[in-house]
Amino acid sequence: MSEVERRSIDSDLAFHSAPTLLGVKCANLISFDMSEGTIKEYLREFADNMAGNGLTAIQLCRCRKRTLVYIYNKKMLTAWLGMPKIQQFLSEYGYTCDMSLEQKLRRLSGRIICGSFPHEIGVFLGYPVEDVRGFIGNHGKNCLLCGYWKVYENAEKARQTFKTYDRCRAILFDRLKIGLNLFQAISKEENI
Questions:
Q1: Cα angle, residue 27 at apex, residues 165 and 157 outer, rounded to 5°
Q2: Which of 5, 18, 62, 158 could form a disulfide with 151 if both were Cys (CB 3.0 to 4.6 A apart)?
């Protein structure tokens, strides 16, 4: 992988996944238009550098020339998916309480069809279940607010969350601008 490719991936991850990378959100999803070999190499580096931070990045699917990468904090995601209202919602899509996190992610991966996402992906990204249900029921229309996700309930709380996510993005970009790579930028201590 070239330095230009590495910097491009660092920048894309900082832009699309900053809240997860900085420990504020349980997971993010990003699509890359790069060779499969380049993405796999970067994912190996990510695993080597981020395991101590509790972060994991996996390839959810590959379609044509695009690779869908899911980045998550295992502890945060496990706690989120373990909430009763989230478990109940996921049970409607064939996920059972006795499934491990890895089994749930394999099921999610298997339900992704090139160009189309299963509705439950929203809860795997930490979106409020009420908003995921609102999106499904309204076919993606009639939302109260559109930001990092479409909001159907509690717009003010979502607005505050979006500001926090914006702050995470700004912090990571500031760190990249001074020459740190993404792994160094994530490891640098600073309150969000």
A1: 40
A2: 158
